[in-house]
Amino acid sequence: EYLGIAGTESVSSVKNDSSLVLTDVMSAFQGKWKKNETLFQEMKRDLTSCCDAESSFLTKRNVRVGEILPNVLNKKLPLKMTRDMYRNLIKDWPLKHKRFNKCAVVGNSGILRGSHCGASIDSADAVFRCNLPPLGKKIYQEDAGVKSSFTTAPLSMLKSYAKMNEESVREQFLKDMEQYSGILSAKKPNNYTKYMIDSIAAARGGELQMVYEHPHHFLRTNTYWNNHGIPKKITSGIYLLSMAMTRCDEVHVYGFWPFPYDDKGDAVGYHYYEAPVFTKDSHDMPLEFMRVRRLHQDGVIQVHMRCSR
Ligand code: CTP
Question: Could you tell me the pTM of the whole model?
Answer without folding.
Answer: 0.92
